[in-house]
């Protein structure tokens, strides 16, 4: 039976409607995100530098345990939306006609309530769970030890005698899909709205409603996020300096484009 908290979350979610959008609208989110990026390049690119540096630290720590590195980068994708909180705030301030900058970012990271902290902890658990699951899967089913990127490429990705890589990708997709559906507009909504209007579970319900009503555009959006992130990683993480904040700003416009608050 639903408890009081879930009933309240459902009521909060019902206060929001979902705008109709064409299937290719995610391309428009990227265009507007690109404009926001270069409107506040200093604060935006600083986010990208932090994310790229975090990725570099992961690589340094796991370079001899590439099975762990593969899962860690995927886990990073799971928790990345919470790291983009300052980017959402910058885009919101620009939408309001304000002057976004470093002060906007500082205000966004100053905790006024515990919602983003709770969401961040939950995403951290999800990311950690995937890293452990990925590590156990690869080490259990790989025919040879996997230590370096070359090992993973040759013994897993290019191994014609095994379907391990395909299965690993499918497992990752199965685990990542509900996380994407739960976060695609949830965190921007929590940044935008006060606690009395929207709680964590209400934001998650709203995010799922958006995905269920627009499966095709949101599938395209997920594919674009994945493709651009892979480009960033393939450029020795340098590309993430631009791509990470670009996607963060674009995600704000996805939220604003999709979610509309119904009159009280």
From TrEMBL:
Tell me where the transmembrane regions lie. 42-61, 67-90, 116-142, 168-191, 218-247
- Assigned keywords, A-Z: Membrane, Transmembrane, Transmembrane helix
Does this UniProt record's set of keywords contain Cytoplasm?
no
Q: Which Pfam families match?
A: DUF2189
Q: What is this protein called?
A: DUF2189 domain-containing protein
Provide the species name: Pelomonas baiyunensis
